[in-house]
Design goal:
Largest sheet: 5 strands, antiparallel
Number of domains: 1
Structural class: mainly beta
Strand order of the largest sheet: 1-2-27-26-25
Shape: globular
Oligomer: single chain
Helix content: under 10%
Distance between the termini: 21 Å
Number of helices: 3
CATH class: Mainly Beta
């Protein structure tokens, strides 16, 4: 177990609602008291991905996000996803890994349904969110269940999407274009529509474009939607984090989004960074935030420590900061080879056992990929175990 403490001095910065004193009284630095591998969850995705009975389902993907549905099921959302069969070892290189055929379909997004008991059962028709135009695609990120409109009794699923376009180096993972929100019906999870809530194409420098939805936290009738820029693509060591807020029931209403400007919230404004000096402090390309009592805890990679291996953390008393850190949390366990860990995502709806929440522990996932882009496709085909999420359980406690 790796025991680390987040910074123990509270420097101030309460809630932006004006009651900063009350917020500071509820806020405390948090200690990651230890971690352990969540083998049950990791093994369930391996089981489902390796199941040879299905030929049109998920066999691997990244961008791992989850959402608890009202009936107890879990909806898992992924970005780039492999479909098709997985073959038993040995693979063509003679190694003992399950493998994919080189012609296995790769789609830009997918969704997989898990029972309340923790068993993956079905992949929704993929891609779930169609490409908006040729050479463009959508990656799903944060999601929540909310009223169809403010105060309505009917509930729907809202999924925040990143729209990206094909580009040349350094934009090998796509040029950021816009933030969108999809509405899914309940309980059948049918896509009803997609709305663009923020268009960034007018920002000339793609590395300064901000896409929202890498993580989402709810408090007091608001959804706080965090986002980031692509600073690392422009050779800045870290990216910056931003935050917007949206009233409950209004995620699909572009006019309802308000952005933190550095001094307040404003609709349609250019957001100001809440974390990141573009050198020592900041976030990786994707990060996750959870709220414990009055404290917000942020998990990221490549932020002031070794990149693509270490998970680090920050804490704050408000979504807008100030954020304190980074502190090292863990070095992600990785399989052998030239592989990288990225996109740490918290799953607060899960308990430490990977099922129901509320036991004080926090499940964190991270994605695994081949590090070299030149032969990544061949490596992911030859070893189907690589391109799947891994899970760990963190034990968080306040450090007063």
């Amino acid at each position: 177990m790796l025991v680390v403490a987040l910074t123990a001095v509270l420097l101030g910065g309460g809630r932006d609602t004006g009651d900063r004193g009350q917020a500071a009284a509820r806020c405390a630095p948090h200690t990651v008291a230890g971690w352990s591998a969540a083998d049950r969850l990791t093994a369930e995705f391996a089981r489902y991905g390796d199941d040879p009975a299905r030929t049109d389902d998920w066999t691997g993907g990244d961008g791992t996000h989850s959402l608890r549905l009202p009936d107890g099921r879990l909806l898992w959302l992924f970005s780039d996803t492999y479909l098709g069969p997985v073959h038993a070892p040995p693979n063509p290189a003679g190694e003992s890994h399950p493998w994919r055929d080189a012609t296995a379909p790769l789609v830009r997004n997918s969704a997989v349904v898990m029972t309340a008991g923790g068993r993956l059962t079905a992949t929704l028709p993929a891609p779930l969110f169609p490409d908006p135009a040729p050479q463009q695609w959508r990656w799903p990120v944060a999601a929540r269940v909310e009223p169809r409109s403010p105060g309505a009794a009917e509930r729907v699923v809202r999924v925040v999407l990143w729209t990206r376009a094909a580009g040349q180096a350094p934009w090998i993972y796509g040029v950021p274009l816009a933030t969108e929100v999809a509405t899914l019906s309940l309980p059948d999870l049918r896509v009803e529509g997609i709305v663009r809530v923020r268009d960034e194409r007018a920002v000339a420098d793609p590395s300064r474009r901000v896409l929202f939805g890498t993580t989402l936290v709810t408090e007091d009738g608001w959804s706080y939607v965090f986002g980031g820029d692509d600073g690392q693509a422009a050779a800045r060591p870290v990216s910056s984090a931003f935050v917007a807020r949206v009233p409950e029931g209004s995620l699909a209403d572009p006019a309802a989004w308000e952005y933190w400007t550095g001094s307040g919230w404003a609709a349609g404004a250019r957001p100001a960074a809440v974390l990141g000096d573009e050198w020592r402090t900041g976030v990786g390309s994707a990060f996750s935030v959870v709220r414990r009592g009055g404290t917000y805890v942020l998990f990221t990679m490549a932020a002031g420590t070794r990149g693509l291996t270490d998970v680090t953390s920050y804490w704050a008393c408000s979504p807008t900061g100030p954020w304190h850190g980074p502190a090292r949390v863990l070095t992600a366990p990785l399989p052998p080879g030239e592989v990288a860990a990225y996109n740490p995502q918290a799953h607060p709806e899960l308990g430490g056992d990977g099922l129901s929440g509320g036991d004080g522990r926090l499940v964190l996932s991270y994605d695994v990929n081949w590090l070299r882009t030149t032969d990544a496709s061949a490596q992911l085909s030859g070893n189907a175990t690589l391109y799947r999420p891994r899970f760990v359980t963190l034990r968080l406690r306040p450090d007063r």
